[in-house]
Amino acid sequence: MDSPVNWDKLPKVTGRPLEGITDHSNEDITRAVEDVDRRLHAIDPDGTVSGAFVERFMALGLTRRDFIKWSSMMTAALMLPPIFESRVARAAAVSSKLPVVWINLQDCDGNTESLLRTSDPGFASLILDTISLDYNETVMAAAGYQAMDRMNEVIAKHHGQYVAIFEGSVPLGNNGTFFTTGANAETGISLATRVASGAKMVMAAGTCSAFGGIPAAQPNPTGAKGVGDALNIPVVNISGCPANAVNLVGTILEVVMFNDNPALDRYGRPLWAYAHRIHDNCERRGHFDAGEYVLNWGDTAAQNEWCLFKMGCKGPYTYNNCPQVRWNQQVSWPIRAGHGCIGCAQPNFWDTMTPFEQPLGAKVYGSALGIGIDAAANTVGEVVVGAAAVGIAIHATATVIRDKTAPQWKNPPPQDTPPKPPVNS
Amino acid sequence: MTENVPEKRTHVLFSPATRWMHWLRVALIVYLVLTGFEIGQPFVLYNPLVPTWKDFLMNWVRGTHEMAGFTLIATELVRIYDFLRTHEYKDGRVLFSKAAWKKQLAYYGLFGRKYRHPGVRYGPLQFAFYAAFYVALILISITGFLLFGANYNGPGFGSFIYHQLGFLYPWFGGLVGVRTWHIWLAWSIIVFVVGHVYMVVWNTVENRDGTIDTMLTGTHMRVDQASENE
Predict the structure, then answer these.
(1) Who contacts B79 (Cβ-Cβ below 8 Å, separation ≥6)?
(2) Where are the transmembrane segments (chain B) (predicted)?
(3) d(Cα B23, Cα A4) in Å, to the nearest integer?
(4) Which of A294, A351, A358, B170 could form a disulfide with A312 if both were Cys (CB 3.0 to 4.6 A apart)?
(5) Contacts of B206 in chain A (CB under 8 A)
(6) Of residues B52 and A56, more confidently modeled
(7) How far is A324 from chain B (nearest CA, A)?
(8) Is the pLDDT of residue A206 over 90?
(9) CA dihedral defined by B119, B120, B123, B125, rounded to 10 degrees?
C-alpha cells in the first residue's frame, strides 16, 4: 500500500452495462467508459497497467498474451461490452490497492483451497495473491496473539475502506461457542460482527457463508446461518461449493471499476455471474431436448455425452455460470466431466437437491421430517393411490355384500319418507 | 306445485360452461399427468446406439405440457367466473350443517339411506373435496407459471412471470422447491381423480338416478322421482 486510496471519494460510475440483461445504448456505454476511466485514474494516475504488475506475472511464467486473453475472458464473464477489456486489465493491475480481509468461519476452507491450489498460477490466483489480502488465516505466517493483533490493526487502519470476505457459516447455537477462533477464543458471531461493521462491502464466499450450506443442513446442530442472515446486513453472496475464483475476482474488479453495489439477484448474488441457469447454458442441453439420457454410469449414452437428467442432474434448478467460465483454469466443469450438477450454488442444496444421483421425484423425505421411514415423493404418491384403490375395492365389495344380504335396502317401503332436508327448508 | 302443471322430473344442476370446462379439464389432466411424468422422470427412451433421427421428443413433451397447462388455467378462470355467476359459492353453507355431514358420512359408510341436500348441488364432503381440488389446481398453476418463467428466456409473459412474479420463488423454496410442490400437487390431483371417479360410479349404481349423466346433461332427477322409479 504505497499511496492509500480513499474508496469513498472516488468518482461514481452510473449505468453499469450488463450485456444481455440491461437495455443500453452506445451513448450509455460511452458515458460508463468515461466514468470508469475517471475512477481508475483517481485510483492510480499512472495510466496503463503498471510495470510492477507486468513483472510479477512475467515472473510466474505468464506472458503478455496470456494477460490479454485473461482480461478478455473476464470482460465477457462480467457481461461487459468488449470496449471494457482494457479497463478490466487496468482494474486488475490496480486491484492490489483494495484492502481485503478474509475471515474463515465454520467451513472446510474449501474456498481458500479452491483459489490457492491451482495447478498453474493463473491470473485469478495472482490477483488474489496480490490484492492487499491483509488478513487470511489459512495462508498467513502469524499465529495466536500475533495474528489477532494483525487483524485488529488492519480493520482499524482501513476502517470503512476494506472489503470483508467471509468464508463459512456463522453458528448461533449455544451463544455461538460452536465456533471460536484465535488466542482469545472469540466466537464466530462476535468476530463477524466486528469485521463486518467496519467493512466497505461484505462478500460471502461459498455457499456456507452465503446461505449456511452444509453446516446448516438438517438437523443443523450448531444453529448455523449464512453471514447475511446471521448479522442481518446486506451481503454480496458468491455462492458455490466452492465459489468459483472467477466470480470472486470478478466481484473485486467490479468494486474497483464501478462501486460496491453490484446488481444482485433475489438471493443477493451478482447478476453477471448468477443470472442464468446451468441447464440453459449446458453443452448437453440438446440431448435433454431430444430425450436422450444417460441411464447408467459408463453406458454408451454416457460415452456419447448424453443428458444426465435421469442421473439426477440438478442443473435445471441451479443458477451459476459454471457452463461459461468453467473450473480448473477454465478447462472443465462437473457436467463436462460426466456427473450431473448437484446444485451447490442454491440455498439449502444439501436438503433440497438430495439424492444427488436421482431425479427430484425420488427425493427422500422423512429424515428431514424427523420420522423413521424415509419415502420418496413418487413412492408416497404410489402408496396413496394404491391405498385409495384398496379402499375402493373394500367399499365396493361391502356394497355388494350389503345388497346381497339386505335386498330391501335400496327399495324401501313407500311409507319410508326421505329424511327432512337439513338446510334451506 | 299445482295440480295442473306436471312436476318436472329433473332440475338443473350444472350450467353448460361448468360442464364444458369439466370435460376439457378431464382431457387436460390426463395429458398433463402423462407428459408431467415424462418430464419429471423420463420413461420414453432412445436407443443410445441410434443417434437422433427424428423429433426432439422432450421439446415436444415440454412444449405441449406448457400449452395444455395454459389451457387448464383458462378453463379454471372460466370455471371460477361461473362459480361466482351462478352463485355456486352459496352452496358452501352445507359445510356448516352437522346433519348434512352426518347423513353423507353415514350414506358412504353404508349405514345411511340415500338422501338429497335440497337447494344445494353438493354434499358437505363433496364440497370440501372439490374446494381442496381447486386449491390444488390453483397452486399447481402458480408453480407451473413459475417453472415456465424460469425456463423461458424471451420477452413477454414468461419474462413477466420471471421478473414481476419472481418474488414467489423463495416462497416455495427456490426453483427446486417449486418443482417439488408441483410433483406433490400432481399426485394429490391423481388421488382426487381416482376417488372422484369411483364415488360417481358408485352413486350411480347405488341410486340408479343417472348421477353420472349429470355432468353431460346438466340436469338431475328429483330425489322423490328417483325413489319412485326404483
Answers:
(1) B17, B18, B21, B25
(2) 23-44, 127-148, 160-178, 184-205
(3) 74
(4) A358
(5) 399, 410
(6) A56
(7) 17
(8) yes
(9) -140
Chain B: give the shortest CA distance to residue A49, in Å. Answer: 38
Report pLDDT for B153.
72
C-alpha cell at B87: 352463485
Give the residue ranges of chain B where pLDDT is below 70: 1-11, 51-54, 221-230
| Contact state of A381 with B198 under an 8 Å Cβ cutoff | no
Taking only the tens place, the pLDDT of each residue in A263-285 is: 898 899 999 999 899 999 999 99
Contact list, B94 vs chain A (CB under 8 Å)? 422-423
Q: From chain B, pick out residues whose CB is under 8 angstroms from the CB of A396.
A: 198, 202
- Sort A24 into a burial class: Cβ within 10 Å, 0-12 / 13-18 / 19+: middle
Question: For residue B61, how many other CB atoms are within 10 A of its CB?
Answer: 21
* A421/B44 CB distance under 8 A: no
Question: Right CATH number for A7-274 from 3.40.50.700, 1.10.3720.10, 3.40.1380.20, 3.40.50.620?
Answer: 3.40.50.700
A314 touches B at CB < 8 Å: yes
- Domain ranges within chain A, ordered by starting residue: 7-274, 278-357, 359-392
pLDDT digits (tens, 9 = 90+) for A64-95: 888 888 889 889 999 999 999 999 988 888 88
Using an 8 Å Cβ cutoff, are A132 and A98 in contact?
yes
A316 near B CB under 8 A: yes
Strands (E), A206-340: 224-225, 236-238
Q: Check pLDDT > 50 for residue A372.
A: no
Phi, psi of B219 (to 5 degrees): -115, 160
CB contact under 8 A, A381 and B187: yes
Rounded percentage of chain A residues whose pLDDT exceeds 70? 88
Amino acid at B5: V
For residue A412, give how far its alpha carbon lies from the nearest alpha carbon of chain B (Å): 9
Domains of chain B, by residue range, sit at: 10-229
More reliable by pLDDT, A414 or B24? B24
pLDDT of A132 higher than 70 = no
Cβ of B166 and A266 within 8 Å? yes
Confidence of residue A1 (pLDDT cuts 50, 70, 90): very low
- Specify the CATH class of A278-357 in words: few secondary structures
Distance (Å) from the alpha carbon of B84 to chain A's nearest alpha carbon: 20
How many Cβ atoms from other residues are within 10 Å of residue A69's Cβ? 13
3-state secondary structure of B153: coil
Under DSSP, is residue A56 helix (H, G, I), strand (E, B) or coil?
helix
* pTM for this entry: 0.84
What is the DSSP annotation of B35-103?
Answer: HHHHHHS--S---TTS---S--HHHHHHHHHHHHHHHHHHHHHHHHHHHHHTTGGGGGGGGG-HHHHHH
Cα of first residue to Cα of last residue in chain A, in angstroms, is: 90
Identify whether the C-beta of residue A360 lies closer than 8 Å to the C-beta of residue A369.
no
B10-229 CATH choice from 1.20.950.20, 2.40.50.140, 3.40.1550.20, 1.10.645.10: 1.20.950.20
Q: Can you give the pLDDT at residue B61?
A: 92
- CB-nearest to B176 from A346, A419, A421 is A346
